[in-house]
Amino acid sequence: MRIRQHALSIAFGALFALALIGQSVAGLFRVNEEQASHGSPPYTWAEFVTSSEFVVDVAENWQSEYLQFFLFILATIWLVQKGSPESKKPGEEGIGTDEEQLVGEHARRDSPMWAKAADWRRTVFSNSLLLVMGAIFLLSWLAQSLSGMVVFNSEQVEHGQAIVSWTEYLVSADFWNRTLQNWQSEFLAVGSMIALSIYLRQRGSSESKPVGAPHHESAVSG
After folding, report:
1. Residue-wise pLDDT tens digits, 158-190
2. Where are the domains positioned within the chain?
3. What is the mean pLDDT of residues 22-26?
4. 105 pLDDT exceeds 70?
């Protein structure tokens, strides 16, 4: 029963692990094909998953995903989309009252302890989801920039060109090409979900309005 109650997070955790392992194996074959074509020794799996080549590919995807969540959480505080279940109803913009948010004197007996606090703890907990998503985005972006610099400089050396510093790499075309190609796809996906969910339905999904709900209704649970 406990597994069933957490089936959604368990399922996606397992899918993540399988996809990451699959990426590492496919990437290992790819990089070893390149090593063989240059007459260089092959990587072991352990060497590859700790290499900059693997880290930069993983990090550039993670940072774009967490940027997507960070911006979506932030935007849905103040911006609305009439008819979308991903949005609050027009007129309900903002952070809400303490009574609506069940904090301070309005907290219930089973409310989280920091929601009942009257000091900085309530402020931190009130914004904890945004803070954590933002922190993961920044750390992933940092990892992408550092590992990307290593990969870029190894290619520079291979072609007899000068290596660059981290600050130089941050303004390079290579860094921003890696970054923006992921950002544009994330923004498209979120925007499509918001817009399509106004007129399309998926019966039984919490991300969809009930099948018979009018198109103009927003924030309706299915």
Report:
1. 889 999 999 999 999 999 999 999 999 999 999
2. 1-50, 52-94+127-222
3. 97
4. yes
**How far is the C-alpha of 55 from the C-alpha of 118, rounded, in Å?**
42
Mean pLDDT of the 112-125 span? 94
**What are the tokens at 196?**
């399509």
Q: What are the distances in angstroms from CA 125 to CA 68, 69, 117, 122?
A: 21, 17, 10, 5
Measure Cα distances from 47 to 24, 62, 144, 154 in Å: 11, 21, 18, 16
Q: What is the mean pLDDT of the chain?
A: 93
Q: How far apart are CA 26 and CA 103, in angstroms?
A: 49
